[in-house]
Amino acid sequence: MAVFDVNNLKILSQRKFAKCLNVIHGEKHLVFDESLMRPLDRICGASFLRSQGASKLFKLGSYVPNPDDNVNIVFFIRSTVSNIRMIKSLYERDKLNEMHGYFLLVYPRMSEVCRTILEEEGLYDIVEWMNMPLDFLPLDLDLVSMEMPSIYRDFFINDDLCHISSIAAALNVVQGFFGVPHTIYSLGKFSKQVSEHLVLDTGESIVHDGDSDVDFFLLYDRNCDYMSSLISPLTFHGALDDCFGINCCYMELSDKVIKGDKAVTITLGPETEVFAQAKDLHFAQVSEFIRHKLVDLENIKKSKAGLKGIQDMKKFVSVDLKKFNADTNVLTNLLHAVDHVISSGKQDRVKQLQLEQDLIANCNYDRNDVSYVDDLICQQAPMVKSLRNMCLLSIAAGGVSRADHRFLKTHFLHSYGYEHMTTMECLDRIGLFRVSGDVQVPFSSWAKKFGCLGAAAQTSRLDKSTSPFYYTNESFCPLIYKVLELILRNSTLELEKFYGTQFASHQIESQSHRRTRRPKSIVVCAVGGLTYLECAVLRLFATVYDVRILIATTSMINRNNIFDQIINS
User: Per residue in 315-353, pLDDT tens?
Assistant: First the structure.
């Protein structure tokens, strides 16, 4: 069975970054887009950057060039207009200083808009720039991400295909390390284009030694299953992301949450073993798990109190004590986070879960549901919460009635301001809040067709440890699980009949001899974002069907950053 050693992807990204830095000779100040700080830290860290000549590190928003420094200024940025304008402003203040060279490392590549601005501002021949495609960054032993949340906005809101080649190139690198699949399946408009690009574009792939280990790729669009991204996540990982936000494995907890003097940052990657054991647990089980672990650590501490030999004491202090204290601190902070999630808005959370389960079970809404959402709007609940529930009504029922659409839209604009007319238009355009009859593939049709509803699973209910419904209180199974089941059963004809041209399969002729064997290794890539709920379900699938799955995505996503992008679009 194939082993996905994602550390190889990290090493490759590290080498790419080092290569770009080494092209720039002399001392360097590295100035980075703040949104890239965590991904950069995940790839290489400050000590590695300094070893490559980056003597000092700065955030873009706070950097001011020192006229006395004879250095090259290297900007590591995303290709956004605001970043280019900011660099232009810095250059204007510093342009008389010939001691500074200006270089741009653009992640993943320079857009045509930003290239045009460089020309218009007279910087094109002054600032040297290089594309910096870092491909997939490892977030876990089986999870990699491009950490490009803007792909959701560009694809699904703006219908901008500029990142198709970047995603295909990143998947091409995965092929190079782990093997070429015999088939590439795709579900959704953008995934289909990525797969077509991937089949044609193999020139940049790293040569894979020996026979391929990967059986097939599955690419799917975020908008094929919005329900999984809008319902309340009930896994530990998902609940923490929903409440506090997780940025490239890092979660920040305020001093109020941890009941301490200052905020702390916790690393939620595979290196934090105690979290790795709990990340996919149902949230209801987490408090007991953490307290049990803390008791175990305390017992270990007591057992070490009786050490008498000097060598045993030295080993304990130099090795075991450090890990013991680190695990204790992580568990204590996680317990504070769990208590905060439980104590904040408990009554509202119960109502929310009940609403979600009723909507999913009935694939429809009633007057009480409309009243509940209207109350949120009139009470000026957080805007994302109101929008999310409006969209849940629409998704579950395949659109709301014209009267309810006008009613909720009018009250929303009265409450939050008419500047959100564009938000309403955007929700309609991407299919999240529409009038019934305007939805192309209603939730009820695909959820019932593929057995994603809890009611459909009642007759063949698996035990909790092997049921994908368990992560949603037995109400719903994310679509990706059922699509993988159909592919493993060679029942892709059902997907072709239901989705038509939205589902496609590209067979790789050089790997045709492997199509008849039982799949053992799969790469799943979510285009537009992936939730931690879906990660947990994919890991469960791997366990139940005895396969290895490499989970890839353009970014980790939750309901908050989905609506943030819609509001700011």
Answer: 655 656 677 788 889 999 999 999 999 988 778 889 999
Q: What is the 3-state secondary structure (H, E, C) of 42-106?
A: HHCHHHHHHHCCEEEEEEHHHCCCCCCCCCEEEEEEECCHHHHHHHHHHHHHHCCCCCCEEEEEE
Q: How does DSSP assign 100-167, residue by residue?
A: -EEEEEEES---HHHHHHHHHTT-TTTSEEEE----PEEEETTEEE---THHHIIIIIT---TTHHHH
Could you give the CA distance from residue 133 to residue 112 in angstroms, rounded to a whole number?
16
Cβ 487 vs Cβ 157: under 8 Å: no
As a whole number of angstroms, the distance between CA 226 and CA 519 comes to 28
Q: Does the predicted TM-score (pTM) go above 0.85?
A: yes
Each residue of 79-113: pLDDT tens digit? 999 999 999 988 888 776 666 889 999 999 999 99
Rounded CA-CA distance 231/476 in Å is 10
d(CA 232, CA 239): 8
What's the sign of the alpha-carbon dihedral 76, 77, 81, 82? negative
Does the pLDDT of residue 312 top 70, yes or no? no
In angstroms, the first-to-last Cα distance of the chain is 44
* Kind plus residue range of the DSSP H or E element containing 545: none
Q: Is the pLDDT of residue 569 over 60?
A: yes
| Among 459, 472, 245, 443, residue whose Cα is nearest residue 341 | 245
Cα gap 554→566, rounded to integer Å = 17
Q: Decide: helix, strand or coil at residue 535.
A: helix
What is the CB-side half-sphere exposure of residue 458 using CA atoms within 13 A? 6
CB atoms within 10 A of CB 353: 16
The span from the CA of 472 to the CA of 106, in Å, is 40
State the DSSP string of 174-221: HHHHH---SEEEEESHHHHHHHHHHHH--TTPPPPPSS----EEEEEE
The upper half-sphere exposure of residue 482, i.e. CA atoms within 13 Å in the direction of its Cβ, equals: 21
| Count of Cβ atoms closer than 10 Å to residue 523 Cβ | 25
